[in-house]
Amino acid sequence: MFARIMAVVMTAILVTVVCLSGVFWITLRNRQIDARLDYLISEAEDIAYLAAGLNRSGLGSLWGDSTQDSLNAKAEKVNREFGAYIAVVDRFGNVMDNVRTAYSEDPEFVNSLSSDNITDALRKVMSGETIRIRLTEGTAPTFTVGVPFVQNNSVTGAVFIQTRAQRVESGLDRILLMIVFVTVGVLVLSGVAIFLFVRHALRPLKKMKEAAGNIAEGDFDVRVDENCGGRELREVSHAFNTMTKKLQGVEEGRKEFVANVSHELRSPITSIHGFAEGMADGVIPPEEHPKYLRLVAEESGRMSVLVNDLLALSRLERDDAKLEMSVFDINEMLRHAVIRRINDMESRNIEISCEPETDPCCVNADRDRIEQVVINLLDNAIKFTPDGGKIVLSSRIRGDKAEITVRDNGCGVAEEDRDKIFERFFTADRAHTAGKGTGLGLSICKRIMDMHGQSLRLLDTDTGAAFRFTLSRAEVQDGNLT
Q: Where in the chain is CATH 1.10.287.130?
């Protein structure tokens, strides 16, 4: 990932720098050409001024005075700097030029000059226009500048300077080379700076990757620094630590669950094994066998309940788990649940009452699953209700929902356990009766209610504990369930 980020960033910088360098090069080139053409026009204007003085006596006269010497010196200077062909033409068609000098220095250039182009340029200049033209005809491109010279507010002649485009554009190669060096330097410095920046910015991700590897090996104690990097990385680091903390909690719950299940299984297995060996070895007399066989049956029942709970939770958590929906009276189910557990409550002198708001109270749900919820909640209440206590089962209608509550006056749920009471591996009763239960009953209930799209929650109570779940109502028409 680091290499890909570097490649993308460097590509973007390369494209940007190349584009900017190209723009800079074109701008600088055009400015240099314009500056040199401006210089040539300035020189042409000086020659035109001098030629205007000579024009009073005619361009064809001898150039022996000081004005003529100045004009010759100016022309020689321009020719030396640009190897230019210089021509001065008056309105009478008289021409003064340096064609011999230009030809001796660069005959190919002089031969490439076009009389048609000069005629077209002359026509423009004689109309009072100052020109600068780049021509590509002939063996090599040329630049032509022309200025008129004026006497008594009228154009009396023109000055032309023609030179190879190469002489005007020369020297740009050095500038281009300098731009290339600057561009390469910028790319190198940018690459180093970005490399250091990206490596520093990605350091938290590298540590997070190492931490993820430790988690994969089963070490859930690792944490990453939440104060490194930008806001997004800090948020990711915080989420990572939160995930790790939850995984650590799940792992601790799993270990505790395994320990609880092992204990719950080991206890009845040990009892069954001991009783069976005692009867087989004759340690337990034959007349005591019925008594111990009943104990074996009870311990077998304990194991059966535990295994059934594990199987039930496993089935409920399968992706293909389905509900068999039907309409039934929840109040009738509450009464049947009380009848099934009446012996357990009478043996401990626990008072039980059903308090429906309306009767019947018809709901639409999976009857067997909801019965499992009611029995689990009732068993939970019986477990934590002291002898002589009281349990209340109630139902009421709230809009299109039916609310069913199972309430007891037992020891209640400790404050620190309230947020964890429905967790799969949390043993809610450890705060009450250590070593009993595996924490599966309420997890099963919560899973069933989630499958129904309904809620199951622990209510706030002054004494004891109260659990309430909701179901969708079903209407009764003419004594029939709908």
A: 220-321
Residues of the chain with CATH 3.30.450.20: 2-173
| CATH architecture designation of domain 220-321 | Orthogonal Bundle (1.10)
Residue 70 token pair = 């100045």
The segment(s) of the chain belonging to CATH 3.30.565.10 are 325-481
Q: What is the pLDDT along the chain (482 residues), one digit of tens a residue?
A: 556 666 776 777 777 877 887 787 788 888 888 888 898 889 888 888 887 776 555 554 434 457 777 888 888 888 888 888 888 888 777 888 888 887 788 788 777 777 777 788 888 888 888 988 888 766 678 888 999 987 778 888 888 888 888 888 777 667 777 777 877 887 788 778 777 777 776 677 777 777 777 777 777 777 777 777 667 777 777 887 888 888 877 777 777 767 767 776 777 788 888 888 888 888 888 888 888 888 888 888 777 877 877 777 777 767 667 888 999 999 999 999 999 999 889 999 999 999 888 888 999 999 999 998 999 899 989 988 999 999 999 999 998 999 999 999 988 888 888 888 887 656 554 443 434 555 678 888 998 999 999 999 999 888 889 999 999 998 765 455 44
HEC readout, the chain: CHHHHHHHHHHHHHHHHHHHHHHHHHHHHHHHHHHHHHHHHHHHHHHHHHHHHHCCCCCCCCCCCHHHHHHHHHHHHHHHHHCCEEEEEECCCCEEECHHHHHHHCHHHHHHCCHHHHHHHHHHHHCCCCEEEEECCCCCCEEEEEEEEEECCEEEEEEEEEEEHHHHHCCHHHHHHHHHHHHHHHHHHHHHHHHHHHHHHHHHHHHHHHHHHHHHCCCCCCCCCCCCCCHHHHHHHHHHHHHHHHHHHHHHHHHHHHHHHHHHHHHHHHHHHHHHHHHHHCCCCHHHHHHHHHHHHHHHHHHHHHHHHHHHHHHHCCCCCCCCEEEEEHHHHHHHHHHHCHHHHHHCCCEEEEEECCCCCEEEEEHHHHHHHHHHHHHHHHHHCCCCCEEEEEEEEECCEEEEEEEECCCCCCHHHHHHCCCCCCCHHHHCCCCCCCCCHHHHHHHHHHHHCCCEEECCCCCCEEEEEEEEECCEECCEEC
Q: Is 325-481 a CATH 3.30.565.10 domain? A: yes
- CATH code reported for the domain at 2-173: 3.30.450.20
Cα gap 155→141, rounded to integer Å = 29
